[in-house]
Amino acid sequence: MNNKAVIVFSGGQDSTTCLIHALQTHDEIHCITFDYGQRHRAEIEVAQQLSKKLGVVVHKVLDTSLLNELAISSLTRDNIPIPSISSSAEELPSTFVPGRNILFLTLAAIYAYQVRAKTVITGVCETDFSGYPDCRDEFIKTLNNAIELGMDYKLRIETPLMWLNKAETWALADHHEKLDLIRDHTLSCYNGIKGSGCATCDACNLRAKGLREFLENKTEIINSLRIKLKL
Fold first, then answer.
1. How much is the average pLDDT of 105-109?
2. How far apart are CA 34 and CA 80, in angstroms?
3. Which residues contact 79 (CB under 8 A, 6 or more apart)?
4. Do the Cβ atoms of 218 and 207 come closer than 8 Å?
5. Alpha-carbon gap, residue 32 to 181, rounded angstroms
6. Can you give the pTM of this predicted structure?
7. In 1-136, at which residue ranges do the beta strands (DSSP E only) sit?
């Protein structure tokens, strides 16, 4: 049975938790990190360090710097400030990189086709997110269908975190006994600070709030996680 998976891997909390989870269910993992000229290059180094620490044999860094030329965002432009508070529900935050997940998932699917993997895993989430349209379940399912049609290849884009909130994502790391690794060694911060981060950007606020909720209601949240993921 083909049990290979390709993971879109940024070295952040979500993709690292997905990697840890996938290592329990897949015999062969391929990590792909995209170098798109992102504002904080440290995330590429963090991703490389984490994949090595977790024993991943194949980890590729792909040059997608063309995205930097096309996509204007505070994550691709130094002159656009990182927002410290969430934008309104009607507005996309400046941290949204248009087309990023379309490009990344399509390239990951092409790579999966070449290595004959049947699964691409991404850490996108609709429950706790910043309003990014390319993190929605509807988008993933639609793109998955288009990729299958375009390559005539049966492939599943898996989103283990899609219906988990951040507290439940922390619970999943704890379930695999990797909570400290996620807390101390991943980089989710929009200002490029590893671990607990800057404590002022949206990503850090969401991450810290989720950790507090998990630690305060551990048993309840673990039970909720087990039901959702059938652990």
1. 98
2. 21
3. none
4. no
5. 20
6. 0.94
7. 4-8, 28-35, 58-63, 119-121
